[in-house]
Inverse folding.
């Protein structure tokens, strides 16, 4: 009976692993197929005529691909760095310092967590338009450079942070801000790593904000570029799959290196 | 002396908070007030922007708008099916993974792949699989099941998105469950075993009740996420919500009114508020419901 139970559990696990993998394997295999084979609608996972042409061709057909890649990198990296700094600074002030207005600011940050993005998206568009920030990096970066969820997370982290370290630093004559940047922040590395991954992925995969803010193809990010590429080459699924694979790779590489922080970060956002 | 120290501390605090306050004021609080203003005006963006006060017209208009009704109906249908399914799937997967089998880590990494991949890429992969002559139909045919024109038939297009999103979101919630499962004390299971409980009993009478707060969190997150469905519908239908409005969601409709047609930006703002209220109501109902249940 025990053995039967174990076999059942393994069956569930393996079946679901197959269900998860198939779309990716199918996309990967399609990216190595010729257009002829794509059109014929055959369903073999091993390409009949294995070809790398699609990967070369997408960069010839659409010379903006490297540009889109660079835009995505610039925006995601900047947004991540700024979030790490600003969320930690805010979280620290809310956790450790005493000042008038602290409760109000904290309540506002909690309230922001509840407001759906659709409410602010239209006025934000008008504000960015007024600032002349549509179709610009700063239009993508500045509104996204803080995140209420992670301010809250950093506050929780700093509340449990040992006070003695800061007191020692103060005795050595370090200012509060100096203590924060030189003593506290370096010790917050695990919390920062989890945060970095989620902010980076959020920005890298974001579709709606760039769709609204960016209309100049030169400034497109990858998801947006990919969508417009699909519009132009709708039946060239070999190209579309090749492009999809190229742009999934960076995230997979990051995941391979940092996967333990992913789990930590998720269980944290899980209210623990 | 004392008060000078306090002033200094407040100065430090506001310095550290200044980037946050700047963004909050300019891109969150300001826009909320602005959105309220917009929802009571007719907005024209040709040339310079002009705003004409129209009272509650934008809100009453929602009631006469057939497309708004279709969008709401599609969204509610989507939420009602996706949230329970992905929650149960996540729980079952997490419990299975947590059973102490070998290779847990491998399965966890595999299951997590969809969570990492961008919605744009996932939607494109699924569009390719849903092709008339594509993988999904071939598999259905192999098992002797009926095939569908997934992308073109209004009666199945939304289901195609549901399947895709259950598949891609369940693993994320699985990880949340997994973290909580590891906290359940072994003594609870041992006590159940002494009472003669089998594996199913243990899952149903120990695991599920213990995880109730987590389930509540997962359902609320699921509600918020599903009510805001946009990317997949947009890419699937090329922004139209087609075929025949079958994949039109509330957020897609808001987007269309705000940015794709003239003079309806104020109406879009009103719709956005209506959506916010629907989401608040749904999460409130969920909270109330799970609280009443826990009385037993």
């Amino acid at each position: 009976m025990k053995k039967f139970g174990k076999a059942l559990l393994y069956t569930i696990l393996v079946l679901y692993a197959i269900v998860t993998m198939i779309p990716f394997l199918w996309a990967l295999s399609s990216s190595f197929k010729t257009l002829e084979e794509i059109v014929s609608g055959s369903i073999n996972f091993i390409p009949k005529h294995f070809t790398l042409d699609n990967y070369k061709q997408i960069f010839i057909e659409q010379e903006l691909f490297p540009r889109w890649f660079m835009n995505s990198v610039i925006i995601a990296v900047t947004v991540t760095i700024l979030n790490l700094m600003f969320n930690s600074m805010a979280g620290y002030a809310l956790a450790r310092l005493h000042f008038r207005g602290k409760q109000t600011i904290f309540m506002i940050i909690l309230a922001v967590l509840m407001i759906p993005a659709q409410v602010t998206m239209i006025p934000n568009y008008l504000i960015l338009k007024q600032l002349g920030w549509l179709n610009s990096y700063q239009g993508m970066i500045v509104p996204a450079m803080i995140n209420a969820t992670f301010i809250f997370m950093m506050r929780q982290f700093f509340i449990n942070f040992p006070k003695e370290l800061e007191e020692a630093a103060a005795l050595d004559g370090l200012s509060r801000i100096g203590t924060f940047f030189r003593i506290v922040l370096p010790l917050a590395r695990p919390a920062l790593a989890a945060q970095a991954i989620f902010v980076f992925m959020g920005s890298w995969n974001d579709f709606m904000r760039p769709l609204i803010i960016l209309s100049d193809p030169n400034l497109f990010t990858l998801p947006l570029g990919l969508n417009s590429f699909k519009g132009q080459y709708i039946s060239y699924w070999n190209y579309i799959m090749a492009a999809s694979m190229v742009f999934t790779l960076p995230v997979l590489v990051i995941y391979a290196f940092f996967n333990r922080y992913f789990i930590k970060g998720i269980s944290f956002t899980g209210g623990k | 002396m004392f008060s000078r120290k306090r002033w200094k501390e407040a100065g430090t605090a506001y310095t550290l908070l200044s980037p946050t306050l700047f963004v909050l004021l300019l891109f969150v609080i300001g826009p909320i007030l602005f959105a309220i203003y917009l929802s009571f005006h007719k907005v024209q963006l040709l040339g310079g922007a002009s705003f004409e006060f129209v009272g509650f017209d934008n809100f009453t208009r929602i009631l006469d708008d057939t497309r708004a009704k279709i969008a709401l109906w599609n969204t509610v249908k989507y939420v009602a099916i996706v949230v329970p399914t992905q929650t149960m799937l996540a729980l079952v997967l997490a419990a299975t993974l947590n059973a102490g089998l070998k290779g847990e880590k491998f399965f966890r990494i595999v299951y997590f792949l969809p969570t990492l991949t961008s919605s744009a890429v996932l939607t494109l992969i699924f569009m390719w699989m849903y092709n008339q002559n594509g993988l999904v139909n071939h598999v259905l045919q192999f098992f002797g099941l009926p095939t569908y024109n997934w992308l073109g038939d209004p009666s199945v297009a939304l289901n195609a998105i549901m399947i895709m999103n259950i598949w891609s979101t369940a693993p994320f919630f699985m990880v949340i469950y997994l973290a909580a499962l590891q906290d359940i004390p072994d003594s609870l299971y041992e006590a159940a075993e002494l009472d003669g409980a089998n594996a199913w009993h243990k899952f149903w009478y120990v695991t599920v009740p213990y995880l109730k707060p987590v389930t509540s969190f997962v359902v609320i997150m699921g509600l918020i996420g599903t009510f805001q469905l946009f990317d997949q519908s947009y890419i699937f239908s090329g922004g139209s919500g087609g075929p025949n409005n079958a994949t039109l969601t509330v957020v897609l409709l808001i987007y269309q009114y705000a940015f794709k047609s003239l003079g309806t930006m104020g109406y879009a703002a009103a719709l956005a508020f209506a959506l916010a209220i629907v989401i608040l109501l749904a999460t409130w109902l969920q909270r109330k419901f799970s609280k009443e249940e826990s009385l037993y």
User: Anything to note?
Assistant: The longest helix of chain B spans residues 2-39. Chain B is about 75% helix and 5% strand. Chain B touches chain A through 91 residues (CB under 8 Å). The two ends of chain B are 58 Å apart (CA to CA).
